[in-house]
Prior knowledge:
Blueprint: E1 18-19, E2 22-23, H1 46-58, E3 59-62, E4 65-71, H2 76-87, E5 92-95, E6 101-107, H3 109-117, E7 121-122, E8 131-132, H4 138-141, H5 145-159, E9 160-162, E10 167-171, H6 174-186, E11 192-198, E12 203-210, H7 212-221, H8 227-240, E13 273-276, E14 279-282, H9 289-292
Antiparallel strand pairs: 1-2, 3-4, 4-6, 5-6, 7-8, 9-10, 10-12, 11-12, 13-14
Helix pairs in contact: 1-5, 7-8
Amino acid sequence: VSNIVPDHPVRIKVNPWVTKDGPGRFKRRAPLPDSASGLPEITLDSEWGYLVGVFQGDGGFTPSGIAVCGLEADRVVTEVAGILERIGLSPRVRRRNSRGLVEVRAHSVAFTHFLLRLGLGTRAPPRGAPSRQLEVPDFIFRSPRDVVLSYLAGMLDTDGTVSKNDISLSSKSDELLRGIKLLLEGLGIQSTIHSWWHRTFKRRYYVLSLGRHASREFIRIVPLRCTRKRLRAIQVMRAWGPGRPVATEDIIVSVRADKKAEVFDLHVPDGHAYIAAGLVNHNCYEGQEEKLF
């Protein structure tokens, strides 16, 4: 169970997994134990954040576990295989084609159930693999900064693009990108989302774009593992020059009276301003409310 997200009732024991009746391997689609007293904890740390980001970017469920694809030169698959080994699984890496595409697979129904409990997928039909849930998991929003940064690194390493103009993330899920936009705003990084129609697949895709200033800040704080994309980002940022922050603003179209309600002033140290749920909040200095209102 995560000590970051206490309300997720999931505990597992690594190597061997623990079933409801005792030690051993889970049977196919066996339920997770309802009671987990006495079992060790798994902390959702930065490695888990990166694994979740990569999985949502270029991974998927199989009938017996999970699979993640990537280019061999990017080292993403190697990184994921190492994380799975440290969890206690036995991942297998194989080459998919001659262009350097490789795939890592880990066969464990118990691990699949664990990911489903974390909100990364929906239950499978009687015969088939679960489906990925393409939205930012709830525990990521409530995780420490290093976990959030590693999650964003996994997303960019797989579904991200570094162009001569900006850094962007693409997805078929608008909800996933809106969640990532909130995470970025919590880090002080502005972004925009637009969509386009894919004629071949006949469906709408979405793109989250960072401006040049936001791209600089993203590369500065997010620990990318993909060497190719990190080097590419450094090269294009040098070509951009020093750059400067870009201010964004929204126009207030109307103000109307609402019912009276009790309000609260939340104080934080050093500056009395904070970012939460994508909004910048500036509270009053103690003792100044009467003067302002």
